[in-house]
Specification:
Order of helices and strands: EHHHEEEE
CATH class: Alpha Beta
Shape: elongated
Subunit structure: Part of the 50S ribosomal subunit.
Radius of gyration: 17 Å
Organism: Sporobacter termitidis DSM 10068
Strand content: 35-45%
Protein name: Large ribosomal subunit protein uL22
CATH topology: Ribosomal Protein L22, Chain A
Strand order of the largest sheet: 1-5-2
Function: The globular domain of the protein is located near the polypeptide exit tunnel on the outside of the subunit, while an extended beta-hairpin is found that lines the wall of the exit tunnel in the center of the 70S ribosome.
Keywords: Ribonucleoprotein, Ribosomal protein, RNA-binding, rRNA-binding
Helix content: 25-40%
Number of helices: 3
Distance between the termini: 10 Å
Number of domains: 1
Length: 111
Amino acid sequence: MDAKAHLKYARISPRKVQIVCDLIRGKDTKTAQAILMATPKAASELMLKLLKSAVSNAENNHNLDPDNLFVSQTFANPGPIQKRMMPRAQGRGYRINKRTSHITIVVSEKE
């Protein structure tokens, strides 16, 4: 049985989140939490909160043992891009893309 947690419209680039996703994929939840607490990336704080939510979902909604869980899937998909303009020389305007992410963590029980 799988339990999921989603975070939509996070104001961080998916490219930055995917680095942290690769660190915890396949690890058990206790190890993943320790890795996220020690990682000095902006996405690790969001991912830690999301991991705790996924473990709680597994425990409360699917009656799974939280000590037996591991991170089976984690990924970050691009969300909508907020487009902004930065004034430049001679009346030009350069575009700034403020990217967003949809982050998903799936935890499963070990066999």
